[in-house]
Specification:
Elements: E1 4-7, E2 15-17, E3 23-25, E4 33-35, E5 41-48, E6 54-55, E7 63-67, E8 70-72, E9 74-79, E10 106-107, E11 125-131, H1 140-153, E12 159-165, E13 168-176, H2 179-187, H3 197-209, E14 215-221, H4 232-241, E15 245-251, H5 252-255, H6 258-270, E16 275-278, H7 281-296, E17 299-303, E18 313-320, E19 329-331, E20 335-337, E21 339-341
Parallel strand pairs: 6-10, 11-12, 11-14, 14-15, 15-16
Antiparallel strand pairs: 1-13, 2-3, 4-21, 5-17, 5-19, 7-8, 7-18, 9-17, 12-13, 18-20
Helix pairs in contact: 1-2, 1-7, 3-4, 4-6
């Protein structure tokens, strides 16, 4: 499979959000605006206790969803399940390990329930975005090992795309269930050039947004952005509006930059993901393990929004309903922007749908 690279300079695209959470070009829209017409909202919800253990076995009636304080009715509900493949191999971290990257344990507080469990949800569409800028010369091989371990750990039902970025975005492997192709792409990457993270992440979100079902982007960044023309707020808005989860794994180089730290934490939290700051290659591996665990324990909930005159930012609130459930923590995106503005650029090529594995089922 050939590698595709494009210059990341901005975004100018009219998009229509479909019922499955995917996007298509919206007809007769200005090239300086993104119009998102909401038909159905999809939420990926993680429920944990105070120690970070996942709570499984919940039912639709255990979730109360509000949009702009308007009660919503759940249309569909799915619960994640354990992956088919094995865990990521890693040594135990030493004293310098990142506590936030430790692997959560799985807890089921409702084992005594007489209700049958919800059917397991289909695999996720996961885009890996790997920093191959000149920030990555140090520890490059260790990062490749951590990503390879993550790919090996994913379920056979999960589809993975592998992208890399420096000043340009390289779509090394299109979304595929053939994880061997992804592994080969990971091992073939080389480092060099400046880092245009937000430019390239925006294009990755746009690719992911065209797909149905659960979709997530896992970013590995070794340093701050020093070459983007796109602000991180544009990335965050599009990811929120299309239900795309962003996880970010970064090293100490980015953590030492207060601005990058704040942006990474805000962006991941706003989309329902997490940010990890790893001090060693062991922490990188544990962060990928935590992300894998998170993806397989998400509840996927959809609803048709009730009539709402708000054409701007809509706030989403999800709470648990039931005996002793209020003590658990809920993590999901906190809303979406109905009408978005983006900078126009006459130099940006027309967007293309990401290539799909020809052997994979059609989306």
């Amino acid at each position: 499979m050939t590698t595709k690279s494009i210059r990341c300079t901005g975004l100018c695209l009219g998009l229509l959000l479909l019922a499955d959470g995917s996007l298509q070009p919206a007809a007769q829209q200005s090239n300086s605006r993104i119009l998102v017409n909401v038909v159905l909202v999809q939420l990926n919800v993680a429920v944990t206790d105070r120690k970070g253990n996942y709570i499984t076995g919940l039912r639709p009636e255990n979730f109360a969803i509000m949009e702009d304080k308007i009660p919503e009715t759940i249309s569909s509900f799915e619960e994640g399940g354990e992956p088919e493949s094995g865990a990521i191999d890693a040594e135990q971290p030493g004293s310098g390990s990142n506590e936030g990257a430790s692997r959560p344990k799985v807890e089921n507080s409702l084992n005594g329930s007489k209700l049958p469990p919800a059917p397991p949800q289909a695999g996720a569409n996961v885009f890996i975005l790997f920093d191959t800028s000149d920030f990555m010369y140090r520890g490059f091989v260790f990062a490749q090992d951590a990503i390879a371990g993550f790919v090996r750990s994913m379920s056979n039902t999960d589809k993975i795309a592998f992208y890399s970025y420096s000043r340009d975005l390289s779509r090394s492997t299109a979304l595929t269930s053939n994880h061997s192709l992804v592994m080969n792409a990971v091992r073939s990457t080389v480092a060099g050039d400046e880092a245009a993270l937000y430019n390239c992440l925006l294009l990755t979100v746009r690719d992911a947004a065209q797909l149905r079902g659960r979709k997530a982007i896992v970013v590995f960044s070794n340093g701050p952005d020093n070459a983007s023309s796109v602000p991180p707020e544009d990335v965050e808005e599009l990811a929120q509006s299309t239900g795309t989860i962003i996880y970010i794994i970064s090293t100490r180089a980015a953590e030492d930059d207060p601005l990058s730290t704040a942006v990474f934490e805000r962006m991941s939290k706003a989309t329902g993901g997490k940010a990890y700051f790893s001090k060693s290659w062991r922490d990188e591996t544990l962060a990928f393990r935590s992300i894998r665990d998170d993806l397989v324990h998400l509840y996927t909930i959809t609803y048709y929004p009730k009539p709402n005159n708000n054409r701007g930012w809509r706030t989403i609130s999800v709470k648990l309903v039931g005996k002793d459930l209020e003590k658990y923590r809920v993590r999901t995106r906190d809303g979406y922007q109905v009408l978005q503005q983006a900078a126009a650029s006459s130099n940006l090529p027309s967007p293309q749908r990401p290539e799909l594995d020809p052997k994979s089922p059609s989306h």
